[in-house]
Design a protein that fits this description.
The protein has 317 residues and is an alpha/beta fold. Helix content is 44%, strand content 15%. The protein contains 13 helices and eleven strands. It is globular.
Protein backbone atom coordinates (compact mmCIF):
# COMPACT_ATOMS: atom_id res chain seq x y z
CA UNK A 1 0.00 0.00 0.00
CA UNK A 2 1.26 3.45 -0.88
CA UNK A 3 1.53 6.11 1.81
CA UNK A 4 -1.83 7.84 2.19
CA UNK A 5 -2.44 11.58 2.41
CA UNK A 6 -2.27 13.25 5.79
CA UNK A 7 -5.59 15.11 5.60
CA UNK A 8 -7.69 12.58 7.52
CA UNK A 9 -5.84 12.37 10.83
CA UNK A 10 -8.07 9.96 12.66
CA UNK A 11 -8.32 7.64 9.66
CA UNK A 12 -4.53 7.67 9.35
CA UNK A 13 -3.94 6.74 12.99
CA UNK A 14 -6.63 4.04 13.00
CA UNK A 15 -5.16 2.57 9.81
CA UNK A 16 -1.71 2.39 11.42
CA UNK A 17 -3.10 0.71 14.53
CA UNK A 18 -5.11 -1.75 12.44
CA UNK A 19 -1.92 -2.90 10.70
CA UNK A 20 -0.01 -3.16 13.99
CA UNK A 21 -2.83 -5.22 15.53
CA UNK A 22 -2.34 -7.85 12.84
CA UNK A 23 0.75 -8.83 14.86
CA UNK A 24 0.35 -7.31 18.33
CA UNK A 25 -2.59 -8.22 20.55
CA UNK A 26 -3.40 -5.74 23.30
CA UNK A 27 -0.65 -3.39 24.57
CA UNK A 28 -2.64 -0.40 23.27
CA UNK A 29 -0.98 1.88 25.81
CA UNK A 30 2.53 0.98 24.61
CA UNK A 31 1.57 1.23 20.93
CA UNK A 32 -0.03 4.67 21.41
CA UNK A 33 2.97 6.04 23.27
CA UNK A 34 5.52 4.70 20.76
CA UNK A 35 3.52 6.27 17.93
CA UNK A 36 3.52 9.56 19.86
CA UNK A 37 7.31 9.26 20.23
CA UNK A 38 7.69 8.61 16.50
CA UNK A 39 5.47 11.55 15.55
CA UNK A 40 7.18 13.99 17.95
CA UNK A 41 10.79 12.80 17.68
CA UNK A 42 11.05 11.81 21.35
CA UNK A 43 13.00 8.77 22.56
CA UNK A 44 11.26 6.18 24.72
CA UNK A 45 12.37 3.99 27.62
CA UNK A 46 10.34 0.80 28.07
CA UNK A 47 10.42 -0.97 31.41
CA UNK A 48 8.90 -4.41 31.70
CA UNK A 49 9.63 -8.07 32.24
CA UNK A 50 10.66 -10.22 29.24
CA UNK A 51 8.01 -11.59 26.91
CA UNK A 52 5.65 -8.58 26.74
CA UNK A 53 6.22 -7.96 22.99
CA UNK A 54 8.38 -4.85 23.47
CA UNK A 55 10.83 -5.81 20.69
CA UNK A 56 8.10 -7.16 18.43
CA UNK A 57 6.08 -3.96 18.80
CA UNK A 58 9.09 -1.81 17.86
CA UNK A 59 9.88 -3.86 14.73
CA UNK A 60 6.19 -3.95 13.71
CA UNK A 61 5.81 -0.18 14.04
CA UNK A 62 8.98 0.27 11.96
CA UNK A 63 7.54 -1.88 9.16
CA UNK A 64 4.19 -0.09 9.17
CA UNK A 65 5.88 3.33 9.32
CA UNK A 66 8.22 2.59 6.42
CA UNK A 67 11.42 3.41 8.33
CA UNK A 68 14.75 1.59 8.59
CA UNK A 69 15.05 -0.48 11.75
CA UNK A 70 18.03 -1.82 13.70
CA UNK A 71 18.06 -3.84 16.90
CA UNK A 72 21.10 -3.64 19.20
CA UNK A 73 21.37 -6.25 21.94
CA UNK A 74 23.23 -4.60 24.81
CA UNK A 75 25.72 -6.80 26.67
CA UNK A 76 28.46 -6.10 29.24
CA UNK A 77 31.22 -6.61 26.63
CA UNK A 78 29.76 -4.12 24.11
CA UNK A 79 32.00 -1.22 23.03
CA UNK A 80 30.95 2.27 21.86
CA UNK A 81 32.40 1.50 18.40
CA UNK A 82 29.99 -1.46 18.12
CA UNK A 83 27.14 1.05 18.12
CA UNK A 84 28.60 4.15 16.48
CA UNK A 85 31.04 2.63 13.99
CA UNK A 86 34.79 2.86 13.58
CA UNK A 87 37.70 3.46 11.22
CA UNK A 88 39.13 0.37 9.53
CA UNK A 89 42.57 0.33 7.89
CA UNK A 90 42.58 -0.88 4.28
CA UNK A 91 45.97 -2.54 3.63
CA UNK A 92 45.53 -2.44 -0.15
CA UNK A 93 44.99 1.30 -0.39
CA UNK A 94 46.83 2.30 2.80
CA UNK A 95 43.83 4.40 3.85
CA UNK A 96 41.29 4.30 6.64
CA UNK A 97 37.69 3.64 5.66
CA UNK A 98 34.63 4.35 7.79
CA UNK A 99 32.40 1.49 8.81
CA UNK A 100 29.18 2.96 10.18
CA UNK A 101 27.47 1.26 13.11
CA UNK A 102 23.80 0.32 13.56
CA UNK A 103 23.04 3.76 15.06
CA UNK A 104 22.73 4.98 11.45
CA UNK A 105 19.10 4.01 11.08
CA UNK A 106 15.69 5.60 11.63
CA UNK A 107 14.42 3.48 14.51
CA UNK A 108 16.84 1.87 16.97
CA UNK A 109 15.80 -0.74 19.51
CA UNK A 110 18.36 -0.65 22.33
CA UNK A 111 17.44 -3.95 23.94
CA UNK A 112 18.27 -4.30 27.65
CA UNK A 113 20.13 -1.00 27.71
CA UNK A 114 20.96 -1.43 31.40
CA UNK A 115 23.21 -4.42 30.59
CA UNK A 116 25.79 -2.21 28.86
CA UNK A 117 28.57 -0.38 30.75
CA UNK A 118 28.54 3.38 31.25
CA UNK A 119 30.73 4.22 28.21
CA UNK A 120 28.35 2.46 25.84
CA UNK A 121 25.28 4.02 27.43
CA UNK A 122 26.90 7.47 27.20
CA UNK A 123 27.76 6.95 23.52
CA UNK A 124 24.15 6.06 22.74
CA UNK A 125 22.68 8.90 24.79
CA UNK A 126 25.04 11.46 23.25
CA UNK A 127 23.94 10.37 19.77
CA UNK A 128 20.31 10.67 20.90
CA UNK A 129 20.84 14.23 22.10
CA UNK A 130 23.14 15.60 19.42
CA UNK A 131 21.64 13.65 16.47
CA UNK A 132 25.17 13.20 15.16
CA UNK A 133 28.16 10.87 15.52
CA UNK A 134 31.87 11.62 15.21
CA UNK A 135 34.07 8.83 13.85
CA UNK A 136 37.73 9.77 13.58
CA UNK A 137 37.86 13.39 12.41
CA UNK A 138 34.51 13.35 10.60
CA UNK A 139 31.08 14.15 12.04
CA UNK A 140 28.07 12.43 10.49
CA UNK A 141 24.45 13.49 10.87
CA UNK A 142 22.06 10.72 11.85
CA UNK A 143 19.08 9.72 9.76
CA UNK A 144 15.82 11.67 9.88
CA UNK A 145 13.52 10.73 11.50
CA UNK A 146 15.61 9.23 14.31
CA UNK A 147 14.08 7.46 17.31
CA UNK A 148 15.57 5.27 20.04
CA UNK A 149 13.40 2.81 21.94
CA UNK A 150 15.36 1.40 24.87
CA UNK A 151 14.18 -1.50 27.03
CA UNK A 152 15.21 -2.51 30.51
CA UNK A 153 14.24 -5.33 32.84
CA UNK A 154 13.06 -3.99 36.24
CA UNK A 155 13.62 -7.28 38.06
CA UNK A 156 17.07 -8.59 37.24
CA UNK A 157 19.76 -6.39 38.79
CA UNK A 158 22.78 -8.71 38.72
CA UNK A 159 25.19 -7.73 35.93
CA UNK A 160 23.29 -4.56 35.04
CA UNK A 161 24.31 -0.90 34.96
CA UNK A 162 21.35 1.26 35.95
CA UNK A 163 20.88 4.41 33.88
CA UNK A 164 21.64 7.50 36.01
CA UNK A 165 18.77 9.98 36.45
CA UNK A 166 20.58 12.60 34.34
CA UNK A 167 20.80 10.15 31.44
CA UNK A 168 17.22 8.98 31.81
CA UNK A 169 16.22 12.61 31.29
CA UNK A 170 17.20 12.22 27.60
CA UNK A 171 14.15 10.02 27.12
CA UNK A 172 10.92 11.85 26.38
CA UNK A 173 8.82 9.15 28.07
CA UNK A 174 9.30 6.16 30.31
CA UNK A 175 6.61 3.52 29.89
CA UNK A 176 5.80 0.75 32.33
CA UNK A 177 4.69 -2.21 30.23
CA UNK A 178 2.25 -4.52 31.99
CA UNK A 179 1.07 -8.09 31.41
CA UNK A 180 -1.87 -8.62 29.03
CA UNK A 181 -5.23 -9.39 30.61
CA UNK A 182 -6.82 -12.84 30.49
CA UNK A 183 -8.79 -12.30 27.25
CA UNK A 184 -5.79 -10.78 25.46
CA UNK A 185 -3.54 -13.64 26.51
CA UNK A 186 -6.12 -16.15 25.28
CA UNK A 187 -6.08 -14.40 21.88
CA UNK A 188 -2.28 -14.52 21.88
CA UNK A 189 -2.37 -18.28 22.52
CA UNK A 190 -4.90 -18.80 19.72
CA UNK A 191 -3.03 -16.66 17.20
CA UNK A 192 0.47 -17.97 17.82
CA UNK A 193 -0.63 -21.60 17.94
CA UNK A 194 -1.43 -21.27 14.24
CA UNK A 195 1.52 -22.27 12.11
CA UNK A 196 0.95 -19.54 9.53
CA UNK A 197 1.11 -16.75 12.12
CA UNK A 198 4.68 -15.86 11.12
CA UNK A 199 3.60 -15.10 7.55
CA UNK A 200 1.51 -12.01 8.36
CA UNK A 201 1.90 -9.38 5.65
CA UNK A 202 2.05 -5.81 6.90
CA UNK A 203 1.19 -2.84 4.69
CA UNK A 204 3.42 0.22 4.78
CA UNK A 205 1.18 3.13 5.76
CA UNK A 206 3.75 5.91 6.20
CA UNK A 207 7.16 6.94 4.91
CA UNK A 208 10.00 9.00 6.40
CA UNK A 209 8.71 12.05 4.53
CA UNK A 210 5.21 11.53 5.92
CA UNK A 211 6.53 11.34 9.49
CA UNK A 212 8.49 14.57 9.12
CA UNK A 213 5.38 16.24 7.67
CA UNK A 214 3.30 14.92 10.58
CA UNK A 215 5.75 16.51 13.01
CA UNK A 216 5.21 19.91 11.39
CA UNK A 217 1.45 19.51 11.66
CA UNK A 218 1.68 18.50 15.32
CA UNK A 219 3.93 21.48 16.13
CA UNK A 220 1.14 23.69 14.77
CA UNK A 221 -1.46 22.39 17.24
CA UNK A 222 -2.76 25.28 19.37
CA UNK A 223 -2.07 25.35 23.11
CA UNK A 224 -3.56 28.10 25.23
CA UNK A 225 -1.44 30.16 27.63
CA UNK A 226 -3.55 28.89 30.54
CA UNK A 227 -2.59 25.31 29.70
CA UNK A 228 1.08 26.31 29.38
CA UNK A 229 0.83 27.78 32.88
CA UNK A 230 -0.82 24.54 34.05
CA UNK A 231 2.20 22.61 32.76
CA UNK A 232 4.58 25.03 34.50
CA UNK A 233 2.66 24.73 37.78
CA UNK A 234 3.04 20.93 37.66
CA UNK A 235 6.74 20.98 36.77
CA UNK A 236 7.66 23.67 39.29
CA UNK A 237 5.88 21.78 42.06
CA UNK A 238 8.23 18.82 41.47
CA UNK A 239 11.09 21.18 42.40
CA UNK A 240 9.59 22.32 45.69
CA UNK A 241 11.48 21.17 48.74
CA UNK A 242 9.93 17.95 49.96
CA UNK A 243 10.89 15.08 52.22
CA UNK A 244 10.06 12.71 49.37
CA UNK A 245 11.71 14.47 46.39
CA UNK A 246 15.49 14.85 46.19
CA UNK A 247 15.50 16.38 42.69
CA UNK A 248 12.67 17.66 40.50
CA UNK A 249 12.03 17.60 36.76
CA UNK A 250 14.22 19.54 34.32
CA UNK A 251 13.04 22.04 31.68
CA UNK A 252 13.06 19.12 29.22
CA UNK A 253 9.98 17.88 31.10
CA UNK A 254 8.03 21.07 30.31
CA UNK A 255 9.00 20.96 26.64
CA UNK A 256 8.23 17.26 26.26
CA UNK A 257 4.94 17.41 28.12
CA UNK A 258 3.67 20.09 25.75
CA UNK A 259 4.92 18.13 22.71
CA UNK A 260 3.21 14.89 23.68
CA UNK A 261 0.00 16.70 24.68
CA UNK A 262 -0.12 18.27 21.21
CA UNK A 263 0.34 14.84 19.65
CA UNK A 264 -2.40 13.37 21.87
CA UNK A 265 -4.74 16.10 20.61
CA UNK A 266 -3.68 15.37 17.02
CA UNK A 267 -4.39 11.64 17.38
CA UNK A 268 -7.85 12.43 18.74
CA UNK A 269 -8.55 14.68 15.75
CA UNK A 270 -8.34 18.03 17.56
CA UNK A 271 -6.27 21.06 16.55
CA UNK A 272 -6.02 22.32 20.15
CA UNK A 273 -4.80 20.94 23.50
CA UNK A 274 -7.14 20.42 26.47
CA UNK A 275 -6.14 19.87 30.13
CA UNK A 276 -7.01 16.17 29.86
CA UNK A 277 -4.22 15.77 27.29
CA UNK A 278 -1.74 16.98 29.91
CA UNK A 279 -3.18 14.72 32.61
CA UNK A 280 -3.11 11.69 30.28
CA UNK A 281 0.58 12.13 29.43
CA UNK A 282 2.08 13.59 32.62
CA UNK A 283 2.94 10.23 34.24
CA UNK A 284 4.90 9.02 31.19
CA UNK A 285 6.87 12.27 30.98
CA UNK A 286 7.62 12.68 34.69
CA UNK A 287 7.97 9.21 36.25
CA UNK A 288 11.69 8.95 35.39
CA UNK A 289 12.45 12.63 36.05
CA UNK A 290 11.54 12.78 39.75
CA UNK A 291 14.40 11.55 41.95
CA UNK A 292 12.99 10.09 45.15
CA UNK A 293 14.54 10.63 48.58
CA UNK A 294 15.52 7.87 50.99
CA UNK A 295 12.40 8.66 53.01
CA UNK A 296 10.19 7.99 49.98
CA UNK A 297 11.91 4.68 49.27
CA UNK A 298 11.66 3.68 52.94
CA UNK A 299 7.93 4.42 52.94
CA UNK A 300 7.45 2.70 49.54
CA UNK A 301 6.28 5.92 47.87
CA UNK A 302 6.67 5.89 44.08
CA UNK A 303 7.09 8.71 41.58
CA UNK A 304 3.52 7.97 40.41
CA UNK A 305 2.29 8.69 43.94
CA UNK A 306 4.14 12.01 43.88
CA UNK A 307 2.64 12.95 40.50
CA UNK A 308 -0.88 12.04 41.67
CA UNK A 309 -0.42 14.29 44.72
CA UNK A 310 0.77 17.17 42.55
CA UNK A 311 -2.20 16.86 40.16
CA UNK A 312 -4.56 17.03 43.14
CA UNK A 313 -2.93 20.25 44.36
CA UNK A 314 -2.59 22.11 41.04
CA UNK A 315 -5.70 23.98 39.86
CA UNK A 316 -7.08 23.05 36.46
CA UNK A 317 -7.13 25.91 33.93
Amino acid sequence: MEAITLSDKQHLVSLIKKEINKVIIGQDYMIDRILIGLMTGGHILLEGVPGLAKSLTASTIAQVSGVDYKRIQFTPDLLPADILGTEIYNQKTGEFIIKKGPIFSNLILADEVNRAPAKVQSALLEAMQEKQVTIGDTTYQLEKPFLVIATQNPLEQQGTYQLPEAQQDRFMMKLKVEYPDRNEERQIIERFSIEQSDNTTLNKILSCENILELRKQINGIYIDDNIKNYVLDIILMTRDKSEYISCGASPRASINLIKVAKCKAFIEGRDYVVPDDIKAMVYDVLRHRIALSYEAEAEDITSEDIITGILEKVNLP
